[in-house]
Amino acid sequence: MLNEAPPRDAAAESAATPSADRPVTSRASRRLVLGGSLAALGLAAGGLPRLSPVSPAAAQGTPAAAPPKGPQPFDYPGKDKGLTLLGDRPLVAETPANLLDDDTTPIAKFFVRNNGQIPEPIKDVDGWQLKIEGEVDKPLTLTVAELKSRFAPQTFRMVLECGGNGRSFYQPAARGNQWTHGGAGCAEWTGVRLADVLKAAGLKSSAKFTGHYGADPHLSGDTGRDAVSRGMPIEKALEPHSLIVWAMNGEPLPHIHGGPLRLVVPGWPASLSSKWLNRILVRATPHDGQGMGGTSYRVPTVPIVPGSNVDGKTNFTDLTSMPVRSIISAPANGTRLPAATRDVALRGAAWAGDHEVAKVEVSFDAGQRWHAMTMAKPKNRYDWVRWTGQITLPSEGYFELWVRATDSRGVAQPHVATNWNPQGYGSNPLHRIAVLVG
Ligand SMILES: Nc1nc2c(c(=O)[nH]1)N[C@H]1C(S)=C(S)[C@@H](COP(=O)(O)O)O[C@H]1N2
Ligand SMILES: [Mo]
């Protein structure tokens, strides 16, 4: 019943009592102090660094629910082995920030998130059927071939981001996949407007919400249960960038990303972007499928004590727009630069859910001073902002580089994960990398 959530971690259940001697930042700052010695940095002679104690996750507290052996490589046909496996049942992998260095995320580097089993590969792609039912005048069954021929195709480059991206930074650990910053990617999606298809079916005045269904079996194999089935208000469905897509980066939509057909609902948690899409139910009332209600994709409207055991029934609301986030994609965390280096070129990306990115800044002195980066113009709404810039370091030594984006409303990323919730949605603290000069 819980979408981003494997069984509850017992440690995450306890500790509902706040204590002044354990402020959220204490572990992080202690680690930074300890990070001063090369031994602590894991800098073995000659070997350049997985800077474990200063890796972004560790710098903000080692996630209690992290796999025991540390990051596991991802081995899947067509996928870059540099992705990090977060779980194999269901199959989940995130993209390290340094692999999000392309303007358009290649399929090989695009994160993977499944809630259930992966369905059998589909041979007759053009014959795949989508049903539109519920509060419509004329229920429709459309094949992919009909979608392609009957409606005007659209291509947009848009961010897809898991609602749990950033979850590993919550303390105590929130239950679910322990994403760092890599539950996101930005691809070129080709398909048709969901709005055009809904209008062809004729929306009744009672059409207020959608419910989405995909063909993937529930993890248990129980045919009576959906792996995930989320839905949204009709206004979001009718936005011109909400698409039913069959192609990704100009290629037929890969099976692992939901081919032959998926939704792409940009700006909101990617769980709405149903893969292996075969049915959209138009509803008069909010959808009640797998992943709706309770604490699923829901966040508190009144802040709660971190670690609270709450059911999400009161003072919770569905997560809609994802919060502003930025990453440094180059240099990679742990880069060692020649001793004489002072000018360091930086690259990265920033995005802000339904909002625009107004500003991207980098600090190399733990946030005392911020330096503005140059932002490229996004291709279209919901595209990410690629940014570049340079900082001039004062000396050789060990530096942490922090990036912070601010959205069009003036809301910046916080230094720590805020608004704790049981399943850990909407965490967007600063991305931090470490470099060693000399
Ligand atoms: N049918 C189906 N659609 C789904 C999911 C799923 O498990 N089944 N996972 C959702 C979630 S939680 C995310 S984050 C995205 C991940 O998309 P990707 O695997 O293409 O990166 O797909 C969404 N669509
Ligand atoms: Mo997700």
From TrEMBL:
Residues 121-289 form the Oxidoreductase molybdopterin-binding domain. InterPro entries: Ig_E-set, MoCF_OxRdtse_dimer, Mopterin_OxRdtase_euk, OxRdtase_Mopterin-bd_dom, OxRdtase_Mopterin-bd_sf, TAT_signal. One of its GO terms (molecular function) is sulfite oxidase activity. Its cofactor is Mo-molybdopterin. Residues 12-22 have a biased composition (Low complexity). Residues 1-11 have a biased composition (Basic and acidic residues). Residues 320-435 form the Moybdenum cofactor oxidoreductase dimerisation domain. Residues 1-28, 54-81 are annotated as: Disordered. Signal peptide: none annotated. It holds the Pfam family Mo-co_dimer. One of its GO terms (biological process) is sulfur compound metabolic process. SUPFAM superfamilies: E set domains, Oxidoreductase molybdopterin-binding domain. This is Mo-co oxidoreductase dimerisation domain-containing protein.
